[in-house]
């Protein structure tokens, strides 16, 4: 390890200019973003439940908002965050069991999670929109 001396202006550890991009960095950042999105989505869920308990007029107002583009976009993000968080959690459980640590498997499982998140999110929304008659 490099010693910090008055005449030595080198960094003490490698940094982003030294290391190249890795899928694990992206997944780690996305996991944190997904956690924030889940918090925001939970607030939307609480709003919907409170409106449901308040009465028909409040419920209609909530459904009008949730059914609009301003409600559907965050709801889509909430769905994607929920699926991503679940899949990444399963990946971490596999790691906790001691499997999947070699670099090839780490990279492949990372890409698989990203692809599965996209596919499953679209699939869930396709089913959901099919049940409500395709109105979006």
Q: What percent of residues are in strands?
A: under 5%
Helix-strand category? mainly alpha
How far the N terminus sits from the C terminus, by CA atoms, comes to 58 Å
Main sheet overview: none
**Would you identify the regions where 5 or more consecutive residues have pLDDT less than 50?**
none
What's the order of the H and E elements? Answer: HHHH
Total strand count, please? 0
What is the mean pLDDT? 88
Give the % helix. Answer: over 70%
Computed Rg: 21 Å
Total helices: the number is: 4
- The CATH superfamily is Fumarate reductase/succinate dehydrogenase, transmembrane subunit
Shape: elongated
Total domains, how many? 1
CATH topology: 3 helical TM bundles of succinate and fumarate reductases
At CATH's second level, what is the architecture? Up-down Bundle
The CATH class, by name, is: Mainly Alpha
Helix-strand layout with pairing:
Blueprint lengths: L22 H32 L1 H11 L2 H28 L6 H29 L5
Helix pairs in contact: 1-2, 1-3, 3-4
Short description:
This protein has 136 residues and is an all-alpha fold. It has 4 helices and no strands. It has a single domain, classed as Up-down Bundle (3 helical TM bundles of succinate and fumarate reductases).
Which tags fit this structure?
single chain, 136 residues, mainly alpha, 3 helical TM bundles of succinate and fumarate reductases, 4 helices, elongated
Report what the structure shows.
The chain has 136 residues and is mostly helical. The protein contains four helices and no strands. The chain is elongated. The chain starts with 22 loop residues before the first helix and ends in a 5-residue tail after the last helix.
